[in-house]
Amino acid sequence: MRDGLFSKAGAWKETLKRYQTVLLVLAAGLVLLMLPTGEREEPSRQAEKSGQEDAFDLEAFEEKLAKTLSQIEGAGQARVVLTLKSGARRILAQDTQRDGDRASASPITVGRGSGSQEVVTLQTLAPQFQGALVVCPGGDDPGVRLRLVAAVSALTGLGSDKISVCKST
To answer: What does the alpha-carbon distance between residue 9 and residue 91 come to, in Å, rounded to a whole number?
Structure first.
């Protein structure tokens, strides 16, 4: 019985010696596959992220501005309404090709792996505001009104003639 076990063990040793190189390459491959290569996001997540970066949320900006204005002494609980002349815009890198008298431009794209393409953004322009309305309990006090107009002007770039401050009921 023991001779049978030793003969089987000898056969295994011989088989391992014969395929030793192949087994080492397979083991090295498995080790390399298990090494971390950094975080990779799914293409759908990347698209969501880039959309979020470029999107301007007017309601969130109004809420944040109202919360900030409410902290001004004498203003009370403020509500803000903003109107936009134009939303946020991106200026894309373009490749211009001339063919005689005609010129054509196409946006430059960069491959991001796994077959996804992304346009190259040169500059992102902030939205342009058209006007602002601030409604608060302290809106009838000239000092509070002046501070509110100055704050809204500083945060939106609007002139004082485009900002209206009213007293709430």
So the answer is: 71
